[in-house]
Amino acid sequence: MQQDLQIIQGFLERAFSIGKSVNGFPLWVIEISDRPGEVEAEPAFKYIGNVHGDEPVGRELLMRLANWICDNYGKDPLAKLIVENVHLHILPSLNPDGFSVRKRNNANNVDLNRDFPDQFFPINEDLSLRQPETTAIMTWLREIRFTASATLHGGALVANFPWDGTDDKSCYRSGNTIMGVLMIRRSGSWHVYIANLTVTCLSAKSLRKASRMEHPGTLFTVVCKTGITYMEDALN
Question: Where is the Peptidase M14 domain (predicted)?
């Protein structure tokens, strides 16, 4: 990771560590901006990858994203737009310990994606039991007020829309909210992807359209206590 950061290093970015993992690996952040290290009146955005050690795709994508932006600034209008209008922070690997041994959890065998405080369920409230990777992220968030964030996972087709949680477990059939799953029909059989979708009708239509282009035969469904109904019916 450190060698990769040295390759990226340039006047558009700086690299710094927000803490260390259980085994002492630095949690490197790549900051990309036309004024790195300074506070700007621009939206701050962060990407986090490799929360689960056995999901390396996000880690690789984020390293490539940082490389692409730095290599194409001055060449590509999109790269220039990002650098000059967004203060971007990229944490390619939150779980370097798990990544090094191809395991989901960290070195203490804790799923970092379940280690943060939850607004609906009183879990992980004991600060002394919180993992160092989790503590590093929470401290970082107190220091920088990010406008938006994204975490990259891999291994399944999942769409979580804000705020990725609710204390109401009933099925929403009215208004503009739908709980559902994504089902794809291939070779005469159904493949079910539990998606925990909480989407507006417009978002559902956009996701359905994109999925059908990639996977012909895609079918969205709404899951309710009474069974499964087609999402197309619910959207009409």
Answer: 1-236
**Which residues touch 214 (CB under 8 Å, ≥6 apart)?**
none
The residue ranges of DSSP E strands in the chain, in sequence order, are 13-20, 26-32, 44-49, 87-91, 148-152, 178-186, 189-199, 218-224, 227-230
Q: What are the boundaries of each domain within the chain?
A: 2-152, 178-235
Question: Average pLDDT of 196-200?
Answer: 43
Decide if 33 contacts 85 (C-beta within 8 A). no
Contact 218, 211 (CB under 8 A): yes
Provide the pLDDT for residue 165: 61
In this prediction the pTM is: 0.69
The pLDDT of residue 233: 35
Q: Supply the CATH classification number for the domain 2-152.
A: 3.40.630.10
CB count in 10 Å sphere of residue 197: 24
